[in-house]
């Protein structure tokens, strides 16, 4: 609406300017033609009077007649002449020409003051512009108020569309509009949003069904393999094959759980937000990992970070960061977790930086060839951070920058955006 008003304003100003200029030159030409027509008429009158009175001298400086011997054609010029009545020099339009009257050549000169015509012309143009300007002001505010009324349903529907949620059970409703195009737009958007809601519910149900249905057969397969390994007499080759198959099933179960978790995050299914302490979550995570690994995990706390988020996602966030550090740590070196300001850092040793550090948080990105790596751990970290507005980052500190022999992979989460 503002753009339409701005366009109307600019267009109107251009039209007013061009109209004023055009009117000025048109009226100027019209007045000049009238003056010249009057001059020719006055010249004819003077010539007629000369036929009756050869000694007529005219009325200087308006009309003048004098005898001459050289005939010439009519000449129209602008000239400056002193006007004794006005006691100043004035601009006149002058017509001069000769006429043979009773065997004698007479030079007849008639003049008309131009200043008066210029004043008339200026007054006409000024009044025209004033009328156009007042009409423009009236039309501008009329158009603005009219547009506001016409566009009100559009902006109202736009606000409803901004608040639209896929999780809402009720369909999106719009305010009716008198404009056909808006009516058609509202109709199509209602159809589209209803279809999106239906697709979202179907996809959500499909995701939950797939998760449930896959877990059961995988668990059965794993139980049967355990039974075969424990009860049947198998050789060493078969044992390794069954063990490998069991590992693949476990990895498939883990991959399924992580994909389901990503889908739930994207579908906004975590709404149990509460104020939690990142420090406490990290401490619990470290205690759990100490039972699973012999790697020394050290926590350095310089600040306490309290944040509003789903506790289960906070646990997943810390678990995935520490799991990634443990999995890719070199030579069982010490892992350092630092909490300072609004940041959480997880640091583990490494020989060199990643080949594609800008892709480290992308789904299924892996540089390690470990079979137990799904490539989803850090992508889940990124998805949780995006969900809550946190800022994840990665950098590598080379060994030349440190006193220790190994370089360091540093993964950091900045919680500042939600503090």
Notes on the structure:
The protein is 54% helix and 20% strand. It has 419 residues and is of the alpha+beta class. It folds into three domains: 2-136, no CATH class; 180-266; 274-418, Heat Shock Protein 90 (2-Layer Sandwich). The strands form three sheets. It has a five-stranded antiparallel sheet. A hairpin with a 2-residue loop joins strand 9 (335-340) and strand 10 (343-350). It is rod-shaped and about 155 Å long. The mean pLDDT is 78. Keywords: Kinase, Membrane, Phosphoprotein, Transferase, Transmembrane, Transmembrane helix. This is histidine kinase. It catalyses: ATP + protein L-histidine = ADP + protein N-phospho-L-histidine.
* CATH topology-level name of the largest domain: Heat Shock Protein 90
Oligomer: single chain
Q: What CATH first level of the largest domain would be assigned?
A: Alpha Beta
Low-confidence stretches: none
Class by SSE composition: alpha+beta
* Helix-strand pattern: HEEEEEHHHEHEEHEEHEE
**Strands across the major sheet, in which order?**
1-2-5-4-3
What is the terminal-to-terminal distance?
38 Å
Catalytic activity: ATP + protein L-histidine = ADP + protein N-phospho-L-histidine
Protein name: histidine kinase
Transmembrane segments: 7-27, 120-142
Keywords: Kinase, Membrane, Phosphoprotein, Transferase, Transmembrane, Transmembrane helix
